[in-house]
């Protein structure tokens, strides 16, 4: 057990053992917080609700004092939390999801400073009373996109000076190990997404509906859909009804190297999501210089600059989706140009180094204020 004057506590939903944008954000948060703690002699602990596996030492390093997993047991998480905030709270508690922030307003808890990470749809709605109270009392809210920041301003009246935009980064260990290349003929259209019925806003169904027009103009294509969930039977039925089953391949979830190979060999990446907080999968495609088609909604325009680094389409505009796919598959030069521009934007704006710098900047403001008191 280390003993230090300054203390930071991370309370996170999930870090290891599952894939997804929130998990990747939390891994980056751990890595950035650990490096800050080690350099500034800060005692850093993390409590993680859903993790059941040991942490990956690449992300949870010597900067950590303790990394405690609750194995999806909320009572265990709350007990571990109360042990660390009573009677003396840390200098800063970072809640990695609005759903965990209710711990900030439990009776007898008096936090010195707190911040809440806001991703997307979980804050684009009316909040339960305890979450709303925690949001109103938080010293800062870390929004992952301009869109989420605007929702915080307009829907929850969070003052602009309390909101910091810290966009997600590509995983620091997601580095293409060889040049990307297309598989050739037929061209491959790729989507990577959760396929649960609650996530049908991802737009996979719209891409399937667009395929008849794509095949009519391009010829044979392969639409590869990576992910798992209870919506697959509906999507399979949709493909049969549209008479495009032969062009659609559901791969299920894939291990890391197989997933990388999907990005490496696809012709373009398509996910016209209507309610994306940001869209880490677009960054993964950009890492391999792939042209991307995303939804002209919510946080996706924070990632994709329409006509510059990719194309934006309305999720329910089936003709617009097919036109975008056909345009890119027909125009090799445009597909290459957008892919390279997207890759450069990734390097300019969405690296882990950029994420770390923004998070460290926030921490400097917290501890400068604390030191002045």
Order of helices and strands: EHEEHEEHEHEEHEHEHEHEEHHH
Count of folded domains: 2
List the strand order in the largest sheet.
3-2-1-4-5-6-7
What CATH first level of the largest domain would be assigned?
Alpha Beta
Mean pLDDT: 91
Can you tell me the overall shape?
elongated
Q: Specify the number of helices.
A: 11
Strand content: 15-25%
CATH architecture of the largest domain: 3-Layer(aba) Sandwich
Largest sheet: 7 strands, parallel
| Protein structure class | alpha/beta
CATH homologous superfamily name of the largest domain? Answer: Glycogen Phosphorylase B
Q: Alpha-carbon distance between the termini?
A: 27 Å
Low confidence ranges: 369-373
Number of strands: 13
Per CATH, what is the topology of the largest domain? Rossmann fold
- Rg from alpha-carbon coordinates: 22 Å
Helix share, percent = 25-40%
């Amino acid at each position: 057990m280390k003993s230090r004057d300054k203390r930071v506590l991370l309370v996170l939903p999930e870090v290891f053992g599952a894939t997804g944008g929130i998990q990747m954000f939390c891994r980056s948060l751990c890595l950035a917080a650990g490096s800050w703690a080690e350099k500034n002699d800060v005692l850093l602990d993390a409590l993680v609700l859903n993790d059941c596996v040991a942490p990956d030492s690449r992300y949870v390093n010597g900067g950590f004092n303790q990394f405690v997993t609750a194995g999806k047991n909320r009572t265990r998480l709350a007990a571990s939390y109360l042990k660390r905030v009573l009677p003396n709270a840390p200098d800063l508690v970072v809640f990695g999801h609005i759903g965990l922030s209710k711990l900030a307003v439990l009776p007898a808890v008096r936090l010195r400073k707190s911040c809440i990470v806001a991703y997307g749809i979980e804050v684009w709605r009316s909040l339960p009373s305890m979450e709303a109270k925690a949001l109103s009392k938080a010293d800062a809210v870390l929004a992952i996109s301009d869109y989420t920041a605007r929702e915080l301003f307009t829907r929850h009246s969070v003052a602009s000076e309390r909101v910091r935009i810290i966009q997600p980064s590509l995983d620091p260990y997601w580095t293409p190990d060889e040049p990307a290349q297309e598989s050739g003929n037929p061209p491959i259209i790729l989507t990577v997404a959760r396929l649960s019925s609650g996530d049908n806003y991802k737009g996979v169904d719209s891409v399937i509906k667009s395929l008849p027009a794509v095949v009519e103009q391009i010829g044979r294509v392969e639409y590869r859909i990576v992910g798992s969930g209870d919506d697959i039977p509906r999507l399979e039925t949709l493909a049969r009804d549209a008479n495009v089953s032969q062009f659609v391949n559901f791969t299920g979830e894939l291990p890391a190297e197989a997933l990388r190979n999907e990005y490496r060999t696809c012709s373009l990446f398509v996910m016209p999501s209507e309610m994306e907080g940001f869209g880490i999968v677009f960054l993964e495609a950009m890492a391999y210089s792939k042209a991307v088609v995303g939804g002209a909604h919510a946080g996706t325009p924070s990632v994709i600059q329409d006509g510059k680094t990719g194309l934006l389409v309305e999720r329910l505009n089936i003709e617009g989706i097919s036109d975008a796919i056909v345009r890119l598959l027909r125009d090799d030069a445009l597909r290459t140009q957008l892919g390279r521009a997207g890759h450069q934007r990734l390097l300019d704006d969405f690296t882990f180094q950029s994420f770390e710098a923004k998070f460290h900047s926030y921490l400097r403001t917290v501890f400068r204020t604390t030191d002045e008191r």
